[in-house]
Amino acid sequence: MLKGRHLIEPGDFQIEEIESIMQLADNIITNPKGYSLVCKGKLLASLFYEPSTRTRFSFEAAMLRLGGEIIGFDDPNNSSVSKGESLGDTIRTIECYSDIAVIRHPREGTARLVSKFAKEMPIINAGDGGHEHPTQTLTDLLTIRKYKGGCDNHVVGVCGDLLFGRTIHSLVKTLNRYEGITFIFISPKELKMPENILHQLNPDSYRETTNLDDVIGELDILYMSRVQRERFVSEEEYLRLKDYYILDKKKMRKAKEDMIVMHPLPRVNEIAIEVDDDPRAVYFKQAKCGMYVRMALIAKLLGVEDNND
Ligand code: CP
């Protein structure tokens, strides 16, 4: 039962609960009209303390497509945060007006912290610093399910900024709960997967490399990521590492015919535009999956998942 629960990191939900969200997302994709009024009379608060395109727009589109409404900000300077109001007081106030809240914040742990202040309103973490991004994980799982037939038994290459990439941290920990997953972590040595995540994996289930060309032919899924400029202390270091990997047509020629290329987006330079037309490139389809899976999540957390046909 997911009604009333918070989603701060994917580990908050059992795999069966995650699968039930996927199933509902499938139903919504098949019959969107049947769900177009299930959130009538409900309000979603959208609190973005950090920039976003996909997460914010897809959450807002999701709530509107379920028949609900939205309040919120994408610039905290337009709220009383700019007068020094604490996050706790902000959440206690917003809970007076809304049924569910989505929060993105640059500081790790913020979503968990504010969830302690919300007594009746589910809190969804839309990304907290370099820590977790659980709804991107739901998006990724729905994409894998749709374009690879299920989430078990894949060789998954994860490439780019594995140190700061919160979508990667959430995804790897979650895929590790499925059967038969082998990871190949591809990064410069400065941006390796953090030890605390490697320690959670079976040592036989992953290997690390700096060379994408060497391994691309083995992969069922290639998950690309951008180098996270906003998390670097040194601009010089960012500039040195930002173009370490660029996936182009030449590299794609070495990949399996049924490999899929995923990316949480935004893309900067790490996938050449020429790859976009390759049928294996699913990153914009992935962004669309994000809206459907967030529709399913909102409906589940509000307990309104029965369609209105
Ligand atoms: N994938 C993702 O979180 O994108 P945004 O930063 O645009 O929300």
Automatic annotation (TrEMBL):
UniProt entry keywords in alphabetical sequence: Pyrimidine biosynthesis, Transferase
Catalytic activity: carbamoyl phosphate + L-aspartate = N-carbamoyl-L-aspartate + phosphate + H(+)
Positions bound to carbamoyl phosphate: R54, T55, R104, H133, Q136, L265, P266
Residue stretches making up the Aspartate/ornithine carbamoyltransferase carbamoyl-P binding domain: 5-145
Pathway terms, separated by semicolons: Pyrimidine metabolism; UMP biosynthesis via de novo pathway; (S)-dihydroorotate from bicarbonate: step 2/3
EC numbers for this chain: 2.1.3.2
GO molecular function annotation: amino acid binding; aspartate carbamoyltransferase activity
Keyword Transferase attached: yes
Sites where the protein binds L-aspartate: K83, R166, R226
Xref: InterPro entries: Asp/Orn_carbamoyltranf_P-bd (IPR006132), Asp/Orn_carbamoylTrfase (IPR006130), Asp/Orn_carbamoylTrfase_sf (IPR036901), Asp_carbamoyltransf (IPR002082), Asp_carbamoyltransf_Asp/Orn-bd (IPR006131)
Top EC class of this enzyme: transferase
One Pfam family in the UniProt entry: OTCace_N
Gene3D superfamilies registered for this protein in UniProt: Aspartate/ornithine carbamoyltransferase
Any one GO biological process: 'de novo' pyrimidine nucleobase biosynthetic process
Family under the similarity heading: Belongs to the aspartate/ornithine carbamoyltransferase superfamily. ATCase family.
Function summary: Catalyzes the condensation of carbamoyl phosphate and aspartate to form carbamoyl aspartate and inorganic phosphate, the committed step in the de novo pyrimidine nucleotide biosynthesis pathway.
Subunit structure: Heterododecamer (2C3:3R2) of six catalytic PyrB chains organized as two trimers (C3), and six regulatory PyrI chains organized as three dimers (R2).
Protein name stated in the entry: Aspartate carbamoyltransferase
